[in-house]
Sequence to fold (106 residues):
Amino acid sequence: GNGTLGIETGISDEKNSLPSGFTLGQNYSNPFITETNIDFNVVYSGFVSLKVFNIEGREVSTLVNRKMEPGSYTVPFDATGLPGGVYYYFMKTAKEMDVRSMILVK
Fold:
């Protein structure tokens, strides 16, 4: 995906050991030029939403929008075509939510 189509691609599932808690990691690298990765842990089976918003609060990408099993995951974010600046990524499950910021450098 190019970060603007809302297409879920390249999710890496690392379910070797179940996570002990819900976490939304800081993207790496940060700041980033075009692409970055976001790690997160899902504790309960259920619907997971991970979306990226610009500084004005407009959604620019949907990275995850589906039912997921408990585990540790990594999803790439490709910001090709987006202007540089601060972006926020928001993750929500049935029981938890978190938000973090990241910086796209152009």
About this structure: The longest strand covers residues 59-68.
